[in-house]
Amino acid sequence: MSERLTLHPDRLLPVDPGVREIARRLYAEVADLPVISPHGHVPPAWLAQDLPFRDPASLLITPDHYVTRLMHASGVDLADLGVGRGELSEEDSRRAFRLLCEHWPIYRGTPMRLWLEQQLVEVFGVDVVPSAGTADAIYDMVADWIGRESSRPRALMDAFDIEFLATTDDPCDDLEHHRTLAEDPSFPRRVVPTLRPDKYLEPASATWVQDVDRLGEVAGQDTGMYAGWVAAMEERRAFFRQRGAVSTDHSHRDLGTEPLADGEAERLYAQARAGRITADDGDRLRRHMVHETFRMAADDGLTMTLHPAVYRNHHPGTLEAFGADVGADIPVSVEVTRALQPALSRFGTAAGLTVVVFTLDETIFSRELAPLAGFYPSVRIGVPWWFIDAPESIKRFRQAVTETAGYTRTSGFIDDTRAFLSIPARHDMARRMDCGFIAGQVAEHRLTEDEGMQIARYLVTDQPKEVFGL
Amino acid sequence: MSERLTLHPDRLLPVDPGVREIARRLYAEVADLPVISPHGHVPPAWLAQDLPFRDPASLLITPDHYVTRLMHASGVDLADLGVGRGELSEEDSRRAFRLLCEHWPIYRGTPMRLWLEQQLVEVFGVDVVPSAGTADAIYDMVADWIGRESSRPRALMDAFDIEFLATTDDPCDDLEHHRTLAEDPSFPRRVVPTLRPDKYLEPASATWVQDVDRLGEVAGQDTGMYAGWVAAMEERRAFFRQRGAVSTDHSHRDLGTEPLADGEAERLYAQARAGRITADDGDRLRRHMVHETFRMAADDGLTMTLHPAVYRNHHPGTLEAFGADVGADIPVSVEVTRALQPALSRFGTAAGLTVVVFTLDETIFSRELAPLAGFYPSVRIGVPWWFIDAPESIKRFRQAVTETAGYTRTSGFIDDTRAFLSIPARHDMARRMDCGFIAGQVAEHRLTEDEGMQIARYLVTDQPKEVFGL
Amino acid sequence: MSERLTLHPDRLLPVDPGVREIARRLYAEVADLPVISPHGHVPPAWLAQDLPFRDPASLLITPDHYVTRLMHASGVDLADLGVGRGELSEEDSRRAFRLLCEHWPIYRGTPMRLWLEQQLVEVFGVDVVPSAGTADAIYDMVADWIGRESSRPRALMDAFDIEFLATTDDPCDDLEHHRTLAEDPSFPRRVVPTLRPDKYLEPASATWVQDVDRLGEVAGQDTGMYAGWVAAMEERRAFFRQRGAVSTDHSHRDLGTEPLADGEAERLYAQARAGRITADDGDRLRRHMVHETFRMAADDGLTMTLHPAVYRNHHPGTLEAFGADVGADIPVSVEVTRALQPALSRFGTAAGLTVVVFTLDETIFSRELAPLAGFYPSVRIGVPWWFIDAPESIKRFRQAVTETAGYTRTSGFIDDTRAFLSIPARHDMARRMDCGFIAGQVAEHRLTEDEGMQIARYLVTDQPKEVFGL
Q1: Hey, are the CB atoms on C332 and B375 less than 8 Å from each other?
Q2: What value of ipTM does the predicted structure carry?
Q3: Which of B2, B7, B13, B15 to mutate: most A Cβ within 10 Å?
Q4: What is the CB-side half-sphere exposure of residue B224 using CA atoms within 13 A?
Q5: Fewer CB in 10 Å around end: N or C, chain C?
Q6: pTM of the model
Q7: In this structure, what are the phi and psi dihedrals at residue C404, rounded to the nearest 5 degrees?
Q8: Mean pLDDT of B458-462
């Protein structure tokens, strides 16, 4: 007989009975508030076209590197999970799904397990634990769900009560999907683009010259010269803002913002255009341009989110066989205090600027981020992200930053996912953990319960609106 | 109606009822023990002259960068808080105080909130929560308190039961205030200076030549030559010791102690005197002199406290407008094992030496400091300081160092503050947190409760006396 | 009257009564399972010759740098503890033992205290707390115990139920003791060697040329040339495997695995043979050879354990007077993501490879190790080791790695000790802490209790067998 799968109403709340009581009351206040998702990777086409999802594996497994990477570590070939393959046959989808169910025990203790369970129970109505024996039946339930009208992306925006959703987009994107959504009176929910200019800012990358050529074309600027590069970026920012964007997103290996001396940017830019820039000079020119980006952001008010310090495609064989973003990106340490100083010294107190620094390197929470966000009005501490978007990590995050920066200097939760169906579960986890943390402070008489209630609501309502200017 | 402000007797004690019981008993043992404050920044003039405090804002806000920085991050202009302005008019003081009360919610979850609450209740007898509505009434209570005879600094030394207080002083200081205090039979409490030679040890700093000239004058040494620099520093140490000093304090960007080869110090010194030393060579000469300082300390027994790795005046505009020490100093990472090796290899087992390493970089607690202090008789682990002098941070500190170094290798609590009135609250917080940590160990049967009692008392009585040679 | 010494059955279990109940049930399942010890430093001669232990100090103090270092920090001369002295007279042994008992309070809060207590009570039957007053009586009990037939090493392997024990051995070792044990039908327990080639892989070390000459002789290879160096190492691996080895152990200052360009290894090898290699080039050649070691391991299946980033013999005076491994080794920070990339890019998904990365730098647990082990089938996260093999550290470890890597990507506990009698206590501590952590997850409804039971058993049975190919 199969084991029953249920969601305990107290899951993730603190174990001490007294604290749990408080946490329950706090959580009850925020459990059903709308979802604000100001940073993530849901493809806008899904919502613009409102097509049904394809198949269970393409829905729950293939695009979710959190899920596939741990099976890979356990010896499963990514090919057998359908990664990097496009459309999957029924047979292939079913096989991938079976592999997930068979490997269910490897997710014990991880958030992936909790997110998937919540989806299985709340979205698909599954009530058995995934296993080799239950895989096919669960597959059928998911496939059946996919076929329903109420499972279309737009209907889910309502079902999940997602009030605001930001996607992540290439500066050259025409944002037609976003226009479609904005102009459709039958779809009142807000879906906005986010400008992610990384590849146009890495002058030493192999594709940079052609990338920047394309950018120039789209922006109607001559990117043959340094000034055109800057102007093109400014043009795209203006276009994105016009299409509703509230932020830009940046993910380089370091956070450097050192500007170049007069004339140096032009000189390095010319070298880069000629394909003769060194890796070091490419970094210098990129840091200069990030500095310029702070200036632009202070001017136009687009919030900057920084997601630094990841070694992308750590395993080249996997990149070749399956492409990028399949779970082979590995964090490295990061430095903030010195790196951001040049930009913050100029723009750190500018009224228009908001910079959210996310990190996979927890050491900077108490050492650098909380002190910076506790002084600069423009700096916000990004909530836990990626590998550390998980219960214990969220606890460590609040423990590390609250004492220096309070509750008001963080960013509000972001789900940062392309796994659309997991969005409610991710936000729910964050709310539970924040309520648990606050409850602990109430129980230790550091806060009154009334204050705790205010904070719990603030973190899921006003804070993201403040930070992303909604 | 205003909300009532009270202090819960169990605040900050562990939430588990069984552990809290134990913690209460431990805390009861130490709650009323005298305060020993071997490192801080109270101006000695306050005590020597025993003048009344000025006004509520100058007492509680302006000098406390912990308090002002978070308002600054929330958009308050430091000018409106009276920072860097000297005397404040009644109107200005009241306005600054109102800003604090209006921004009360931003301190939720921070130690500043807890320190301020404890002062409001225990010192001023306030019983309403600060807010826009209560600001003026609270201001009046504080102003009234300031006017009383019993609110003078010396009376507070008694009221707070501060047994020992060290100030922080420039090597060129004549220490007249300390002499006044030491020679006054009506003031039996011990207030001693601490030598802080940082600026005389940074040969690449802009003011170094004139600083060292002045040092030479005061010390009666010719600092035109390297030998005179060393001799001048030795002379000032002897003078400080004579005036009661028990320690010297050092805060450079790194902890390097590499000595220079024969003749190299003289050569670099001459370059520095000529204003031609590079930043790197300035660092090398400084590290050499810090090495010499270990030698001096092993000889004369002055405890060395090291407070490294802060990027001072991160925001130049703020430095220009408001001066230093207004909340714009940001930590950077620090390395200890390699940095201290040259000095410890020579003096680490010397009987006379005590070196206390404080840190804002928590990563070194378990990785470097506890292992070092668990081997070298001269090395002590500084208790949490500055940004991490807070409940969760204190918990993490004990969790990180105790297993490698036990309880006997730490430094005893230091308040490190110029906010005189907050001293009792800071020590009280440390005592509560330490008792909570020990209580957890008792509850897990790692210690007996008797042992816990001994440890709790030791940490606030004998340990600071041992470490600072009192 | 002396204080009674007892072991509380719930020691180290979580304090919350509900969680403790669960933890007790989990612990009951694993408390008595056999010990698997796949990495440690017990001398194989002890078991091969089965001689009685010498004296109480030589048994419990002298060889245990955990114990001696903290007394050293407290001002005890290592000479008085018998460190580095060989045979001890009855008088000297008794004096060392007395010093330990007198210094008993310095171990409060440390695992050494818990390990020693468990040995005193469970092995020797001591029931009084060590102190100046009880030292001699306890000494006599230990001395009496040593004299018994049942206290011989082989009998203890049975008494402690050590199913598998790996020692650590020089590549030139003839492994005669291991052969003796393997061929003795009266000794059915498995004791295997581990190849530790460090010193043969540091071409810039002072003794390297003679070390490698010796290696060549033993391996029957001409190590005059680079190819012979590689071949010699391969030969020794084959020999160790034949004698039962399941792993090799590596402890360099960094984890670098960058291979050299064609011909460069030969060139640097020739320089090293001529004694003219720089420290930097020595590191480069070593990293190349470590890269080669990954290749060998992928071929022959010997698990690689990496124990990097320790500053050995930090205090030269202690090295001179007492030799190595006496407690003066201090950790430094370590980097993994970039360092292992060259080797993992080639061998990271090879079926035969298993690499366990241990660390004293906790910052890499969530930032680098868990992400790496959550992707690469070959990478395992080493459990806490050395300074962080302690209750709070074990808790932090599970909290840091489980959310990214689950329970299945860790290594299984290793005791890593030469203190033979402490092995059961160390494994017991790890089991208690793991059960406590799992119990917390059960109480927060992240796992069912059944799952918790499976995990608790897995961590002490199948996991080490998987990782070390037993």
Answers
A1: no
A2: 0.98
A3: B15
A4: 1
A5: N
A6: 0.98
A7: -95, -35
A8: 98
